[in-house]
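Hi V.,

Quick status before I head out on leave. The structure for the redesign project is tokenized and pasted below; the design run finished overnight.
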């Protein structure tokens, strides 16, 4: 299915609900904005993605170990990490609609409108000049387009300066100068721009007066940093080594939208790689390459990924890049790879008074290691898999099917076993096979409806193989195996089902490509 299809995301949302991948959270109470629950198929797919990441990052690297740290952490953690003071979004309210917006998003939406005008000019010219049209030359010489581009550059410069200097009066002036109106009320009656911290807070302790504010972690990484020494000493790790974990993170996103792309409760898979100072940029390049390989091994599309190297670096980073994926809404951040220097460990040393160093026997000295981090959103990865997998096909006989071409190793159900009829001992034979397979594979039994309908149901949840038990099975112990993608069926001895599943649905082949 072509990307940038406006309807694709909507289709994925409704398919996810209909087939038990993702439900709106607490739906019977009309749901809670930007919060979702994973259903019976969603949880299997999510667990398989986690397993692919965990095996690749932890079990296949001798020098990386995993942990599972608590969501609640000592409040000073977030002071040290900078989240208390600097994890803010600039917000503005419209006084008439009472709607709240991220100020930078309002400006970015305005820029997108100007870009739309450029695209219109390009399309018009392409039509006028036909084959002779040279887009590059046109956009760099056409006075109207050049004017639009200059306008965008000047807006971006003003916004960046306002963010860098935290001058929120200038931010408001920019919004007023651009004549931006509220998409809901249409008015330009704006409040001042204010900072809004994205961390959720709650109170620890039940006795009045003894409570103290604690935060739901906005990233899993700090649980790794504060355990650096525990892991290094207990596992006797030498630099370079990594600590990985998978877990929930929480951010009070103001504009949470685009399904599971931006949520307030989400899951991260993060790895901090501790290296000798000076070696970090080599490791940063290595991890960029390794992580891209991990993604591409899934076969979701060679051209579906790109790097976005950050030009404006956070004060603690000396290099940073995103791996962007071509989601239904276009290329967006899927994973971040950051060279974070010694910022976090040093900040925790300063705030805790505890040394977080490594004794280097070759250099005969202690130092704070530098860190290269890889950080991927599990839910975004889930959305990437679903959007690549969702396909509507018209078959040779003119009928249509929706199929999820999920990489077999990630598919929620690996095999469906279907007795052709509900009688003559076929159900019993089918159950015998399932009972054998279920130790190693997720398997479903289905006897309801005509066989074609049952195949469609399995296609819709991405089951790579359907095994049909028919009367011939009772005679010669053979079954048909139907391949989800080609829809081809072959008759094989019943014992071969396991061999096919082992070969085609295990993570091993994927991991070999890493
Ligand atoms: N420790 C670094 C860190 O947290 P980040 O770029 O803020 O970096 C890492 O987040 C990844 O987490 C992102 O690339 C994205 O995949 C995911 N992520 C961030 N905010 C998210 C949200 N609100 N909803 C879903 N995923 C999110």
């Amino acid at each position: 299915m072509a990307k940038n299809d406006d309807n694709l995301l909507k289709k994925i949302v409704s398919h996810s609900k209909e087939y038990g991948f993702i439900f709106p959270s607490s739906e019977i109470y009309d749901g809670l904005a930007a919060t979702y629950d994973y259903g019976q198929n969603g949880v299997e797919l999510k667990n398989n993605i986690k397993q692919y990441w965990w095996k690749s990052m932890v079990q296949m690297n001798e020098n990386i170990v995993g942990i599972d740290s608590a969501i609640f952490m000592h409040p000073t953690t977030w002071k040290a990490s900078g989240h208390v003071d600097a994890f803010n979004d600039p917000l503005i309210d419209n006084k008439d609609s009472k709607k709240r917006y991220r100020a930078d998003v309002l400006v970015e939406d305005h820029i997108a409108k100007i870009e739309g005008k450029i695209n219109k000019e390009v399309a018009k010219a392409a039509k006028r000049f036909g084959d002779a049209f040279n887009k590059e030359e046109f956009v760099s010489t056409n006075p109207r387009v050049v004017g639009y581009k200059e306008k965008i550059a000047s807006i971006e410069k003003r916004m960046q300066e306002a963010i860098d200097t935290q001058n929120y009066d200038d931010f408001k002036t920019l919004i007023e100068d651009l004549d931006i109106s509220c998409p809901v009320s249409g008015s330009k009656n704006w409040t001042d721009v204010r900072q809004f911290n994205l961390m959720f807070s709650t109170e620890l302790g039940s006795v009045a007066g003894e409570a103290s504010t604690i935060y739901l972690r906005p990233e899993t990484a700090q649980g790794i940093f504060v355990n650096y020494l525990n892991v290094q000493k207990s596992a006797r790790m030498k630099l370079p080594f990594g600590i990985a974990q998978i877990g929930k993170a929480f951010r009070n996103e103001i504009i949470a939208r685009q399904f599971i792309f931006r949520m307030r409760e989400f899951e991260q898979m993060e790895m901090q790689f501790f290296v000798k100072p000076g070696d970090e940029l080599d490791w940063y390049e290595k991890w960029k390459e390794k992580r891209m390989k991990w993604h591409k091994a899934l076969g979701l599309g060679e051209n579906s990924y790109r790097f976005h190297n950050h030009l404006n670096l956070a004060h603690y980073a000396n290099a940073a890049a995103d791996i962007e994926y071509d989601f239904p809404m276009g290329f967006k951040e899927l994973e971040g790879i950051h060279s974070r220097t010694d910022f976090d460990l040093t900040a925790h040393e300063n705030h805790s008074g505890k040394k977080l160093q490594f004794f280097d026997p070759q250099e005969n000295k202690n130092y704070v290691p530098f860190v290269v981090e890889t950080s991927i959103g599990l839910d975004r990865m889930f959305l990437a898999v679903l959007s690549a997998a969702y396909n509507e096909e018209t078959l040779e006989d003119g009928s249509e099917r929706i199929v999820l071409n999920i990489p077999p190793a990630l598919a929620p159900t690996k095999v469906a076993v279907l007795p052709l009829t509900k009688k003559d001992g076929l159900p019993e034979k089918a159950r015998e096979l399932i009972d054998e397979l279920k130790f190693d594979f997720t398997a479903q039994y289905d006897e309801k409806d005509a066989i074609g309908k049952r195949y469609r149901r399995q296609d819709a949840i991405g089951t790579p193989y359907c095994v049909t038990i028919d009367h011939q099975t009772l005679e010669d112990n053979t079954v048909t195996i139907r391949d989800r993608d080609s829809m081809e069926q072959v008759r094989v001895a019943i014992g071969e089902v396991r061999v096919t599943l082992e070969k085609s649905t295990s993570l091993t082949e994927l991991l070999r490509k890493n």
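Above is the designed sequence. The chain has three domains: 1-76+213-392, 88-197, 395-512.

G. will cover questions while I'm gone.

Best,
W.
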